[in-house]
Amino acid sequence: PVPELPGKSAFFVGSTDEFIERRRQGLQHFLERVLQSAVLLSDSRLHLFLQSQLPVPAIEACVQGRGPHSVTEAILRYAMAGPAWGQRGDGGG
C-alpha cells in the first residue's frame, strides 16, 4: 500500500512559514516511507517522477510505451540535458 500523503489544510492557524515547514516535513516523511517499500521503489513511474521533470501524462505515456523514449532513455536524457528537458511535456527539450 502507498503511504498516505500529509493533509493539506485550508484552515491552518499560524504563519505561512510554519505551514510550509510542517508540509515539507510531512512530505519528507511520506517520501522516506515510499522509498522504504521495495515494491514502490521498483516502480518506473516513481523513478520518472523523481528523476525527471516530465508531467504526469508524459510519465504515464512513457511507462505504457506510448512516449518517444523508454523509461531508461527518459531518465538518462533528463540527467544529461538538465532540468529544462521535458518541461514542455512532449519529451523534447
UniProtKB/TrEMBL annotation:
**InterPro entries tied to this protein:** PX_dom (IPR001683), PX_dom_sf (IPR036871), SNX10/11 (IPR043544)
Q: Give residue ranges for domain PX.
A: 1-56
Task: Enumerate the Pfam families for this protein.
Answer: PX (PF00787)
Entry's PROSITE patterns?
Answer: PX
Q: Is Transmembrane set as a keyword in this record?
A: no
A GO-annotated cellular component: endosome
Q: Which GO terms describe its molecular function?
A: phosphatidylinositol phosphate binding
Per the record, the GO terms for biological process are: intracellular protein transport; vesicle organization
Membrane topology, from the record: Peripheral membrane protein
Entry keyword set: Cytoplasm, Endosome, Lipid-binding, Membrane, Protein transport, Transport
- UniProt keyword Cytoplasm, yes or no: yes
For this protein, the record's PANTHER family field holds: PX DOMAIN-CONTAINING PROTEIN (PTHR46209), SORTING NEXIN-11 (PTHR46209:SF1)
Q: Which family does it belong to?
A: Belongs to the sorting nexin family.
**Protein name (Swiss-Prot/TrEMBL):** SNX11 protein
Where does this protein come from, organism-wise? Molothrus ater
Organism lineage reads as:
Eukaryota, Metazoa, Chordata, Craniata, Vertebrata
Quote the gene name from the UniProt entry: Snx11_3
